[in-house]
Design goal:
It contains eight helices and two strands. It is mainly alpha-helical and about 180 residues long.
Length: about 180
C-alpha cells in the first residue's frame, strides 16, 4: 500500500472519529478541498500525518474548533453576487408576498453579511415583518461575528455599490452606523 492510500485511510478515520465524537459529518465534502484544509491544519499544529490529529481532536475541543475554522469558508460580503439578489427580488419576492408568514434558512451563513443583505432587501419589499430568517454556520467564530454585525468600513463601502446593483431602493447608509 502506498503512502497516499494510507493517508486516505487516515483521513477517513479522522472524519469518522469526528462524526462519532462531535456529530459533524464531513464525509461528503469535496475531497481535494478537505485534504488541502487538513494539510493546512497539520502545518499549524506542527504535525506530519492526518492520524496524528485524531487524538488531539478527540481530546482537545480547542483543536477541534481550529479544525472547524480551517474547514470553514468565510469568504463573504454584503450583496455578494448582486445579480442573484436582483433575481431574488424579481422572481422570488412576489411569490413570498403571497404568504402570510414564511421562514428562510441560510445554511453556511459565514459571518452573516448575506443574511443581513437579504433582511434589508426584504424590509424594503415589505416582507421582513412576515419572515423568520435562520442564519446558521458550524463555525462558531463566524457566528459570533454575525451576531455582532460589526464589519470594516472598507467592506461597507464596496457593499454600497453592490446594494445598488442588487436592486436596493434607498441609501445603504441608512442601514448602518460608523
Amino acid at each position: 500500500m502506498e503512502l497516499t492510500e494510507i493517508a486516505e485511510i487516515e483521513i477517513d478515520t479522522l472524519l469518522e472519529a469526528i462524526r462519532l465524537r462531535y456529530d459533524y459529518d464531513f464525509s461528503n465534502y469535496a475531497r481535494s478541498s478537505l485534504k488541502r484544509r487538513i494539510n493546512g491544519l497539520l502545518i499549524k499544529e506542527k504535525l506530519d500525518m492526518p492520524y496524528q490529529l485524531i487524538p488531539r481532536i478527540l481530546y482537545d475541543e480547542q483543536v477541534f474548533n481550529r479544525f472547524l475554522s480551517e474547514l470553514s469558508v468565510t469568504v463573504t460580503e454584503m450583496y455578494r453576487n448582486p445579480e442573484f439578489f436582483a433575481d431574488l427580488i424579481e422572481s422570488v419576492f412576489p411569490i413570498l408576498d403571497t404568504y402570510p408568514y414564511f421562514k428562510i434558512w441560510h445554511a453556511g451563513c459565514a459571518t452573516g453579511e448575506k443574511a443581513y443583505s437579504l433582511a434589508i432587501l426584504m424590509k424594503e419589499a415589505g416582507l421582513l415583518s412576515r419572515a423568520k430568517i435562520y442564519a446558521t454556520d458550524y463555525n462558531n467564530k463566524s457566528i459570533d461575528i454575525a451576531k455582532q454585525g460589526i464589519y470594516s468600513v472598507e467592506r461597507i463601502e464596496e457593499s454600497n455599490k453592490n446594494y445598488i446593483r442588487s436592486g436596493g431602493k434607498y441609501s445603504f447608509n441608512d442601514y448602518y452606523t460608523e
